[in-house]
Amino acid sequence: MDIREAIIARHSVRNYKEDPIPGDLAGKLEELIRRCNEESGLHIQLILEDPECFDTLLAHYGAFANVKNYLALVGPKDLPDLEEKAGYYGQKLVLEAQMLGLNTCWVGGTYKKGKCKADKEAGDKIVCVIAIGYGQDQGKPHRSKPLKKHCRLSPEEMPAWFRNGLKAARLAPTAVNQQKFTVELDGDEAVIKAGRGILAKVDLGIVKYNFEAASGHKCR
Ligand SMILES: Cc1cc2nc3c(=O)[nH]c(=O)nc-3n(C[C@H](O)[C@H](O)[C@H](O)COP(=O)(O)O)c2cc1C
Fold this sequence. Notes:
This protein has helices spanning 3-9, 23-40, 57-61, 82-99, 160-170, 200-215, and strands at 45-47, 70-76, 103-107, 124-133, 181-186, 189-194. By secondary structure, the protein is of the alpha+beta class. The relative contact order is 0.19. Flavin mononucleotide binds next to strand 3 and helix 6. Flavin mononucleotide binds at residues 11-12, 62, 105-110, 128, 139, 142, 173-177, 199, 202-203, 206.
């Protein structure tokens, strides 16, 4: 599976099998996390075999079952664009996990923050977590907003790379499936902006990563 296929195949999965994440896959994720942290200044961590973080009524109410592994998206409170970076690098890990045959779900609210086992340095905060493991199913596609809610251009007016990027952006996970982002073309550059909404800056980073991964073009 390549990254474009991973973008299409990825859906939120909330119910997991007992199977642990094998050591070699965990090792690959750890290596990618190390590189993401080095590049971004984040302190992302992979927590394995810890059911407590999702052992809460809120998580069960939110349909989570058997979540034992998660990525904790931790970073210094004063890191510029902390939320957007957490979104961008978190989504990089989500798509890598998908290519490794794992499933994921971004989680901003329905988990027990106080039980999250991530190490926090002074001044760190947990932005979000991402449940990860072998899903009971592969999830299902979300309802996408009409294209015109995101972009003023019609598909015929878009260069092929921009069209590919926009398609991937619309497949990105967003908090409560809000999809509050716009993508415009400025010269030969894509400009992606967040609308108002909960965790909209995290969504922005996620959407930017999907766009760049599918289009091969850096966006602003
Ligand atoms: C930043 C963020 C926070 C999220 N928080 C939660 C959450 O607390 N609980 C939950 O069940 N789903 C959560 N989700 C998952 C979204 O509901 C889901 O991504 C959206 O409905 C689109 O579905 P899809 O991921 O299957 O494409 C979150 C997603 C994002 C991007």
